[in-house]
């Protein structure tokens, strides 16, 4: 399992882009982690699934609300990762109002989630293999903090805890 000091694996996630920009076409675009994380401090939070109750009511809204404070603390980007496809993540992001605040990244085949050892088997609940709920602060691809929730909990992967981590770890960066 992933731990503090580890470098994130170079896997590719997918991001749905609503508005075509230079270098990003409409639709799903690959996000190659080692390139996307290079030289940046990124707050990453992961959750079991798009549109699920805690994720939609608390997890994503908390990061949206704290986006400016996280940036002021030295976080360059905020990413939400879920074992969902980029189309679902894009639609969920539009509904949540994440534009310009949180990048919604799909790990549709759980490649990243499996590579970091943070899977959650929800097969008995009809959801298949998903991600555990967690948050990590990553600087230049290296994990600087990692807070993993106990099953069914939402206590340490919230935006307030991430803001404390960012203030503690990014000061003087």
TrEMBL record:
Annotated Pfam families: Redoxin (PF08534)
EC number: 1.11.1.27
Keywords: Antioxidant, Oxidoreductase, Peroxidase, Redox-active center
All copies of domain Thioredoxin, residue ranges: 2-171
The UniProt record lists the keyword Oxidoreductase: yes
Domain of life: Bacteria
Catalytic reaction annotation: a hydroperoxide + 2 glutathione = an alcohol + glutathione disulfide + H2O
Family annotation (PROSITE patterns): THIOREDOXIN_2
Keyword Transport on entry: no
Broadest EC class assigned to this enzyme: oxidoreductase
Family: Belongs to the peroxiredoxin family. Prx5 subfamily.
Function text: Thiol-specific peroxidase that catalyzes the reduction of hydrogen peroxide and organic hydroperoxides to water and alcohols, respectively. Plays a role in cell protection against oxidative stress by detoxifying peroxides.
Protein's UniProt name: Glutathione-dependent peroxiredoxin
Naturally occurring in which organism (per UniProt): Aquincola tertiaricarbonis
